[in-house]
């Protein structure tokens, strides 16, 4: 089994100053996500949220319906002032939760997974992020999930809403079999029980609820919903250990993955590729959840098509199951939890805080905000050319300031002003400064501090901060101006 060294968070020291630690922000917070929300992976496209609140796409162009994007490019359609909060990817479509509590979708809409209010349901491919219809008045979206050809939304009222194909009861019997074109509530949660988290497999809906139970509906592959038959309404799992407290859920075509509050990872369903991490493979039903050995302090989980991913408290990501390159190297199934490797010379060595996976690719984001990927790269979904056998930073990532720099000090001649760097999507390793008197750059005023002179009296002062990091596009941001200098 491959082993990796436990990684500590990198310091990021500049030549002259130390940049401020990245702070929580609306669009992206570099803290642990128990289930991926700032990144998503489909078969041939990858997505991640930038510090500017936009969704960046690499790989097959879901908005154009053809072609590829070899470097991260923003998706079009979010209204001005609306920032992406989370993202989910289905087959050739993507969902985005906006900071305004609305859900936007783009890409394929053949089954109504992006909703369709036209009389003849003619709104097929959506080339721009477009609001989904159907949430009741006063209900805002709190989370999104995408299946093969259906969409799920967690409402602020604690209900789960769905739209799209319902061929396997993944949207429950509250909606017709086949295509559906408007978000509607799923059936099955008991009265008074609220949904707190959701995920979607290919033909499965999985819900974590306020009563501590996990509920599922849809196609129960090998007992993945702890049932050996199709489940037609949201039904509580019966195959979980007594007293298990679940923090997060993840679903794929063949498995449901659960993160326990004790740090253990539990899996139901298929083990044909060793997804259960037991060192063996089989084609038996596994309706009773099995714990993956060797991952004892997990903080985040993901379910790939035929694999399981987990991040431990040290920021190391582990995988089990089918390996098409997304678990480092291409080869035989990984039947015992094994650590993914990071390629030498990467621009960050910070711990991993988030993981997203699909059939042949894995994305991670580290505590510095850097997105790395491993696996198949035939559509340039990992940027550049050639497949990746180890986690490698996606090219073209930008350093964006999502919290502007600030200036502290007294607005009086002789006082010293101090620049505070603000917050950045990718943590800079160096910052440079330029002070301005009004709109005019002050000669030689390029330190983190500036002593006010008589020339500044009657003017307002601001500072420009530029964040840099090797291999990344630099970011620049301006502080607000001070009051008039006295």
Overview features:
Immunoglobulin-like; globular; 4-stranded antiparallel β-sheet; 486 residues; 2 domains; Methylamine Dehydrogenase, Chain H; single chain; mainly beta; disordered N terminus
- Which whole number gives the mean pLDDT? 91
Number of beta-strand segments: 37
Report the biggest beta sheet as strand number plus sense, adding barrel if it closes: 4 strands, antiparallel
Estimated share of beta-strand residues: 35-45%
* Uncertain stretches of 5 or more adjacent residues: 1-28
Count of distinct structural domains: 2
- What name does CATH use for the topology of the largest domain? Methylamine Dehydrogenase, Chain H
Q: Report the top-level CATH class of the largest domain.
A: Mainly Beta
What's the Cα radius of gyration? Answer: 24 Å
Principal-axes shape call? globular
CATH architectural name of the largest domain: 7 Propeller
How would you write the strand order of the largest sheet? 1-2-3-4
Task: State the CATH superfamily name of the largest domain.
Answer: Regulator of chromosome condensation 1/beta-lactamase-inhibitor protein II
**Number of contiguous helices:** 0
N-to-C span: 68 Å
Helix content: under 10%
Broad structural category: mainly beta
